[in-house]
Specification:
With 167 residues, the protein is mostly beta strands. The protein contains no helices and 14 strands. The chain has a six-stranded antiparallel β-sheet, with no helix packed on it. The chain has a five-stranded antiparallel β-sheet with strand order 4-11-12-13-14, with no helix packed on it. A three-stranded antiparallel β-sheet has the order 7-6-9, with no helix packed on it.
Length: 167
């Protein structure tokens, strides 16, 4: 039997993907749960520049999410509330509807660095309260590949960024 190395990832050695969308969304990030051998737990690392967010305001109907702020400061938009956040803060985003919609915005002066952790549901519905859209998707149990994905508003398929502020 071949000896395996322990499942360990060093955040400083991760290869990050850079992307930007419109005036509000920008990030350097990656998902790395698979590198740790995780199948039912998703984990990602993000670096968001000042004045930006890595995703629109949204809620998950099935998946729970958790965020751990490592560096920087920002605002956690949750339901109808906003809370200042910083290093050491742990943010919960339980499954629900618009009352659990969430978004992290870097309102500080340096990159906001955080971990995002989520349950990996095979089927998920997300709502986007700012734009009135929803996303429905399914993924395979192994490998996390998406088998079905649609973004819809009022019976019409739309682009992911359609109607989002700053997109």
């Amino acid at each position: 039997m071949e000896k395996q190395n322990p499942p360990v990832v060093n955040l400083a050695k991760l290869t990050l993907d850079y992307w930007t969308q419109g005036t509000l969304y920008e990030s350097r990030d990656t998902s790395f749960g698979a590198l740790l051998g995780l199948k039912a737990l998703g984990i990602g690392y993000s670096e968001v520049p000042p004045g930006k967010s890595s995703c629109p305001f949204h809620s998950h109907h099935v998946e729970d999410e958790l965020f751990v702020i490592l560096e920087g400061h920002g605002t956690y938009r949750y339901g109808g509330e906003r809370q200042l956040i910083g290093p050491g803060d742990v943010l919960g985003a339980p499954a629900g509807g618009p009352e659990t919609a969430h978004q992290i915005i870097n309102t500080g002066t340096v990159p906001l660095k955080y971990l995002s952790i989520s349950s990996m549901a095979a089927t998920e519905i997300c709502e986007y309260p700012d734009s009135g859209k929803f996303l429905a998707k399914t993924r395979t149990a192994t490998g996390g590949r998406t088998d079905f994905r649609t973004i819809n508003r009022g019976g019409e398929e739309v682009d992911y960024w359609e109607g989002e502020p700053g997109a």
